[in-house]
Amino acid sequence: MTRYILTALLACAAMPAMAQNQMGAEAAPVLSGRPCLQQGNIYDFQYAPGARSLIVTDTARVRFRLNFTAKCYDIDRQFGLRFKGRGVGRLSCVAKGDSVLLRNAGSERECFIRDIEYQTPFLDRSDLAAMGTGRLGR
């Protein structure tokens, strides 16, 4: 009988540690390899400070950072964006050299993508610090 009680106590003591490990694994998925943002799976976007980057979330809730070759003026005043890529089809990956198209006052502006990376917590903290200090360059 005591063996069953001891086993139950050990199992209860291990539960919070197991739950903590599972929560930590869900909160910070390990992303490796070449980032592949598919045009047909774009869910949301937000602007990074300095108008040199765009943070895009796909339908799997993976966040990507698109860095532009130059400052992309008036990107923060857009309600919708279009992507112009060299790939064929909606499931092709957005790649270096593709562009984001902005429509502003009847004219269209293109912002060329320099590179694509995963948006990490470190980049989130640096964006937050850039907004707080007024430093807009990257």
Describe the 3D structure.
The chain is α+β, with helices and mostly antiparallel strands. The protein has a domain at about 40-135. About 30% of the residues lie in helices and about 30% in strands. A 6-stranded antiparallel sheet has the order 1-2-3-6-5-4, with no helix packed on it. The chain is globular.
Uncertain segments are 19-26
List SSEs in N-to-C order: HEEEEEEH
Q: Please tell me what the overall shape is.
A: globular
Strand order in space, largest sheet = 1-2-3-6-5-4
| Terminus-to-terminus distance | 65 Å
Kindly provide the radius of gyration, computed on alpha-carbon positions and rounded to a whole number of angstroms. 21 Å
Overall pLDDT, averaged? 79
Task: Please estimate the helix content.
Answer: 25-40%
Number of helices: 2
- Give a count of the beta strands, DSSP E runs of length 2 or more: 6
- Structural class by SSE content: alpha+beta
**Most strands sheet:** 6 strands, antiparallel
Content of β-strand: 25-35%
Name a few traits of the molecule.
2 helices, six-stranded antiparallel beta sheet, 28% helix, alpha+beta, 138 residues
Short synopsis of the structure:
Helix content is 28%, strand content 28%. It is an alpha+beta fold and 138 residues long.
